[in-house]
Amino acid sequence: MSTQDLTDTPTRRSAPSRRPRLGQLLSQLIAVMWTSLAVLPFLLIILLSFKSNTDIFSNPLGVLHVDWRPENFSEAWSGPPGGQGFVQYVFNSVVVTAIGVAGCVFLGSFTAYFATLASPRVRALVIAGFLAAATLPLIMLLIPYYSAFSALSLLSTPWAVGVVYACLCLPTSVLILHGFYLGFPAELREAAAIDGLGLMRTYLRIVLPLSRGPLVAVGLINGIFVWGETQLAIVLLQAPESRPIPVGLLDFQGQFSANTGAIFAGLTLATIPLVLLYLVFNRSIAKGIALGGVFR
Amino acid sequence: MSTRSEQATTGMSDATLLRVAAPGGRRRRLKTSPQTVAMLLPGLAVLAIFFGLPVLDLVRTSLSSWSGIGPREWTGVDNFAEVFSDATIRSALVRSIVMGVGVALGIAALGTVLAAFVSRGLAGSRIYRVLWFLPGVAPPTAVAVFWALSVQPFAGVVNVVLGGVGLGDDHAWLADPSTALIVIIAVGIWQGVGFAFLIILGAMEEVPVSVYEAAMIDGAGGVRSFFQITLPMIRPVLSTVVLLNVIWAFNGFTLVWGMTRGGPGDSTTILPVLVYKDAFESSNFGVAAAVSVVGGVFLLILGFAVYVFGSRKAPDA
Questions:
Q1: Which of residues 94-113 of A touch B (CB under 8 A)?
Q2: Domains of chain A
C-alpha cells in the first residue's frame, strides 16, 4: 500500500456522506415526529390537569382564555367523596416500592456476586434458573400468589406485596448485576483475601461499595416496574385503603367520572415525578438496560 | 516467557481455559466452595418459593374446582376440556397472540429504525436518546387512562387533531369493537419502543466501525449496509427483543384493563383479562388456572422457537 492510498482515504470517506441528503432529511423528519409523539402527551397531561372540566372538553389544546383550575390537585390529593385520596395511594406505593427495590437490589447483588465465584457449571445452572424465572409470565403466578396470600391472611397488606415484588424483581436484578460482576477485577478480591478478609466481609467492604453505579441502575429499572405494576396489585391489594398509585388511578377513572380535571391531576402526580427522576438519572438507567437488558 | 505460559496453558483443562478467557479473569477455582454455595442459598430459595412452588400450585388448582375460599375439589382434566372446547377462551388466546405479535413487531421495527438513526449520529441524537425512553417511564395505568381519554370522540385530543386535519373527530375508537384492539396495540407500541430502542442501539454500537468503513470502500450505501451488515449482526439481540416483547404484550393486562376492561363485548379480552374475570369476578379459579397454564405453555413453546432462531449464528459473525 503506497502513501497515496492512505492520503486518499479521507476524501473517500467524506464523499458518500454528502450524497444521501434526502435520506438524512427524511430521518430527521421521522425523528422529530416520534419525539413529539413521545413528549407531547406529558405536556398535555400537565396542561389538562390545570383546566376545568368544561375547558377539557371544549378547548383541550388551547392555552389562551382558559379557566385555570389548580383545585384539581387538591381534589385529587384528598380524593373523591367516599373514595381514597392520592395521598393514601402515594403512601402505599412508597411502602411497596421501597421494600421491593431494596430487597431485590441487595439480595440480587449478593446472589449475582457469589454466582460469579462459583464454578462455571454451577454458575451456568444458577443463571439458567434465574433466566427461566425472569421469562415466567406473571399470568402463571397471579392465582397461586392470591391463594397463598389468602391462606396467610396477607391480602391487602402493602408490605407483603413489597416482599413479593422484591422476589419478582430478583431474577432481572441477578441477571443484570451478574453481567457487571463478571467483569469485576479478581485482583481486588485476591488482595482482600491476602489482607485476611473473609468472603462475606470482602463482599460488604470491597465489592458492594464499588458497585454503587450498577446498583442504582438496577434499583431504578425495577423501581419503574414496581411503581407501575398493576396486575398483581389489583388482585392482592383489594381493600381501597391498601391500594398503590396505579390501582388508585383506575379507581379515579370510575369515581371522578364527572371530574376529568381531577383525573388529569392524578395522572400528573403519578407521572411527572417519575419523569423528573428519569431525566436526572437517565444515563444510569440507559447503562443498566444496556448491561443486561437482553439478559445475556 | 512465552514458552512458559504456553506450557502452563497446555497443562490446563478445558474448563480452566474457559475461565481464563472469561472477562475479569477468574482463575484457580475448579470447584465451588461450600461457602459460596451457602451464599447462593437465599437467592435459590426465592426461586423455589416464589417461582417454583407457585407453578406447581397453579397446576394443582387447574386440575380442581375452587371458588377462591374453602377446599379444592379434584376434577382431573375437566377444566382443560372446557378450555379447549370453549370458543370464548379460544378467541381470547387468538387475541393475545395478535396483541403480542402486533406490539412486538411494531416495537422491534420502530426501535430498529430509531436506533439506526441515532447510531449513525443523526443531529440531535443526544437529546433523542433521552426523550425516546420517556413513555417507558410512565406507569402503565397512567398511560392507559391518558390514551383512553384522548381517543374519546370530539373532546379527546387524538380526535381533535384528526378533526383538525379533516379526518373527522367523532370516531369512538375504544367503543368500536373493530378498532379497540388496534388502539391498544398502538399504545403498547408507544410505551414499549423506548426500551427496545436502547437495547438495539447498544447492539448496533457494538458493531465495529471498521466493518462499515470496509463496506463503504466497497461502495455500499447507507441503506445497503444497514440491511447487509447492521441487521444480520444485531439479529440475536433483535430476536431477544421480539421475544421479550411478545411475552410482555401477551400478558399486557394493564393497558387493556385501563382502557377497555376487555370490552366492548369481548373484543379486547386477552388471556390475562379472561383469567382475571374468571377468577376474581366469577370465582371460577380452576378454569382460570387452566387458562393460565395453557397461556404459559404456549409462551414457553414460542420462547423456545424464537430462542432457537435467534441463537443461530449470524452469517457474518
A1: 107-108, 110-111
A2: 78-292 (1.10.3720.10)
List the CATH number of the domain containing B114. 1.10.3720.10
Compute the distance between CA of residue A120 and CA of residue B28 in angstroms, rounded to an integer.
Answer: 12
> A260-292 and A245-255 are packed helices; what angle lies between their axes, rounded to 10 degrees?
150
User: Helices (DSSP H) in A50-119: which residue ranges?
Assistant: 53-58, 71-78, 86-117
Distances, alpha carbon B296 to alpha carbons A49, A226, B147, B249, B303, in Å: 40, 22, 29, 13, 10
* Chain B CB contacts of A108 below 8 Å: 43
Are A186 and B296 in contact (CB < 8 Å)? no
Among B127, B149, B295, the residue with its CB nearest the CB of A260 is B149
**Chain A contact for B307 (CB, 8 A cutoff):** no
Residue B45 or residue A14, greater confidence: B45
Other Cβ atoms less than 10 A from the Cβ of B87: the count is: 8
Q: Closest Cα of chain A to B273: distance in Å?
A: 9
pLDDT at B18: 41
CA-wise closest residue to A233 among A148, A125, A146: A146
**B271 pLDDT more than 80:** yes
Q: Is B280 on the interface with A (CB under 8 A)?
A: yes
pLDDT for residue A155 is more than 60: yes
Is residue B61 within 8 angstroms of chain A, CB to CB? yes
Q: Report yes or no on B226 lying in a domain.
A: yes
Question: What is the band of A139 on the pLDDT scale with cuts at 50, 70, 90?
Answer: confident
What is the predicted pLDDT for the residue at A164? 95
Which chain A residues in 176-195 lie under 8 Å from chain B, judged by CB atoms? 181-186
Q: Nearest by CB to A23, which of B129, B222, B240?
A: B222
B232 — pLDDT class (breaks 50, 70, 90):
confident
Helix, strand, or coil (residue B154): coil
For residue B300, the enclosing domain spans 88-311
Query: Nearest C-alpha of chain A: how many angstroms from B7?
Result: 23
Q: Give the whole-angstrom CA distance, residue B186 versus residue B192.
A: 10
The whole-number pLDDT of residue B311 equals: 63
Q: What is the pLDDT of residues B60-82, one digit of tens each?
A: 888 888 887 777 888 878 888 88
Q: How many domains does chain B have?
A: 1
Residue B165 in this model has a pLDDT that exceeds 90 = no
Nearby residues of B264 by Cβ (< 8 Å), 6 or more positions away: B174, B175, B176, B177, B180
Residue B166 pLDDT exceeds 50: yes
In a domain, B54, yes or no: no
Q: What is the mean pLDDT of residues A16-40?
A: 81
Give the Å distances, CA to CA, from B294 to A178, B58, B90, B93, B282: 32, 11, 11, 9, 19
